[in-house]
Amino acid sequence: MAEQYDNTNRGALFDNDKGDNPKRPDMTGSLNIEGTDYRLSVWKREAKSGRTFLSISAEVAQKQNGAAGPAQQPQQQSLNDEIPF
């Protein structure tokens, strides 16, 4: 029986095809931190000093079936149709 690989606290980045949109990230990937999966977006930037750096954005990844995780589900507000007068 094959041993299952533990991805906890690991991630990977891949070059991204920017196509005709220069605002798309240069790299995208995923990262798992203590059991929570994150989607990463990375842009290569140049500081005013001329040094290059990576600008990174991370957000909680959605589940495979497309359903949002608990942190991303819109909160439902109860509607009270009673008029107080």
Keywords summarizing the entry:
four-stranded antiparallel beta sheet; flat; mainly beta; 85 residues
How would you describe what is shown here?
The chain is mainly β and 85 residues long. 0% of the residues lie in helices and 39% in strands. A 4-stranded antiparallel sheet has the order 1-2-3-4, with no helix packed on it. A hairpin with a 5-residue loop joins β3 and β4. The radius of gyration is 20 Å and the shape is flat. The protein starts with 9 loop residues before the first strand and ends in a 25-residue tail after the last strand. The mean pLDDT is 84.
Question: What's the gist of this structure?
Answer:
The chain has 85 residues and is mainly β.
